[in-house]
Amino acid sequence: MTGDPDDFFDRLLAIDWSQRFDSFGEDELRRLRLYDKLAHELCGSSFFAAPLTFSVKASPEESYQHLEHAGHDALRSMTMTFRQLWSAREPAAFNAVRSLLRRHALPARDGVDILELLDAIGTRFKQATSEEMMKSVWKEDPFGVPIEVTRARQVIDDWLYAGALHTDEEKAERVG
User: Fold this and answer.
1) What is the mean pLDDT of residues 87-103?
2) Strand, helix or coil for residue 92
3) Where are the beta strands (DSSP E) in 69-122?
């Protein structure tokens, strides 16, 4: 399922989801409600209400990276919510909730296959978290084969576990 992301999300919005799943147990419903609550909380975060600006300068005289956002408190607050949707150990983690929905999906009908849609969402998530964010190369060969590739998942993990919630010294060093 490829194509324009807007078309994909428009398709998701057009579906009547009310009768597309078998019944859920009480614990499963709690997890779904928690996911819904956290997703709404994340979307309403003050962090996303302020503009985000990233600037980079690389020259022989001066080099820097600068990120302007809503502020440290807003960032910390947002990451506390985001971490619960991100970390595989959390009950409302994205992939765990997607798997729960897959287990309860009813067979395709009316041209809508819920498993296909959930798999497409999972594929998009995997692609987004696998995106290359940065490549490190040998100083003598800046156009050569990278010695290290940093993917989106590592960047997110580094920011989440570099001191705000847990301290992993290696991650903190990459962030700091």
Assistant:
1) 96
2) coil
3) none
The predicted model scores a pTM of 0.77
Tell me if 131 sits within 8 A of 141, measured CB to CB.
no
The sign of the CA dihedral 102, 13, 45, 173 is positive
Residue 117 vs residue 2, higher pLDDT: 117
Please tell me what DSSP assigns to residue 108: P
Can you read off the two tokens belonging to residue 40? 């709404």
C-beta separation of 21 from 29 below 8 A: no
- Give the CA radius of gyration of the chain: 20
Q: Strand 148-151 and strand 132-136: pairing?
A: antiparallel
For residue 144, give Cα distances in angstroms to 57, 59, 130, 139.
22, 21, 21, 10
Q: Are 85 and 39 in contact (CB under 8 A)?
A: yes
Please, which residues bridge with residue 134 across strands?
150
Angle at 136 between CA 134 and CA 142, to 5 degrees: 115
Whole-angstrom distance, CA of residue 24 vs CA of residue 72: 39
